[in-house]
Amino acid sequence: MFSSADLPETIPVFPLPGALLLPRARLPLHIFEPRYLAMLEDVLKTSHRLIGMVQPIQSSGEEQQKLHDIGCAGRVSAFSETEDGRYMITLSGVSRYRITRELTCFSPYVRADVCWDGFERDLGTSEHDDAFDRDTFMDTLGRYFHELKLATDWENLKEADDELLINSLSMLCPFQPEDKQALLEAPTLSDRRKTLVTLIEFALRGGANEEVMQ
């Protein structure tokens, strides 16, 4: 468990389109580019072992890749090395952050000064969504998975608590990067669930002309 006092002012950031990390969730990553292998080596030397996941802003014709202001930092909680020098790692989500300044340095990867203010709830216990109509949600989710021909373990989904269910679907469903950013920036679990439902309904209307869930 982290407290606000444990969070560093500067962290390495890993821009990866479509890769969403949320607090108290886990994200597996395959690290193979030399600059990110260097990042991992440096991170493992720190006490916090935090990497900041962040979405690049989708643009064309610009030399410098721009990043969204808000990302989510995760602690390297597991890693294994392959025979050819690549790494499989797991990030455990700790807290969202806001980038205040990207640093110009000799590092091959991006480092940034970050602010953790406004995301204090990320360091607490699991959130609950008191207005969550799970039966209706699962029905709509079933239609969405059928439309996209996605398979899942429905028994585990039905037994998952509110936060695990909503956050796991937010991370795993094949939404566009900007949609993933909207899910990340949702202030509360209830807001994230509403955003998730909106995205699922939009996909259904565009695919099979399904009715919107009331």
- Class from helix and strand fractions: alpha+beta
Q: Tell me the series of helices and strands, N- to C-terminal.
A: EEHEEEEHHHHH
**Unreliable segments of 5+ consecutive residues:** 207-214
Rg estimate, integer Å: 18 Å
Number of discrete domains: 2
Strands of the widest sheet, in order across it, are 1-3-4-5-6
CATH-defined superfamily of the largest domain: LON domain-like
CATH topology of the largest domain: Archaeosine Trna-guanine Transglycosylase, Chain: A, domain 4
EC number: 3.4.21.53
GO biological process, one term: proteolysis
Protein name: Lon protease 2
GO molecular function, one term: serine-type endopeptidase activity
What features would you describe in this structure?
With 214 residues, the chain is α+β, with helices and mostly antiparallel strands. It folds into 2 domains: 4-123, Archaeosine Trna-guanine Transglycosylase, Chain: A, domain 4 (Roll), CATH 2.30.130.40; 134-207. The protein has 6 helices and 6 strands. A 5-stranded mixed barrel has the order 1-3-4-5-6. It is globular and about 50 Å long. The termini are far apart.
Summarize this entry quickly:
It comes from Actibacterium lipolyticum. The chain is α+β, with helices and mostly antiparallel strands.
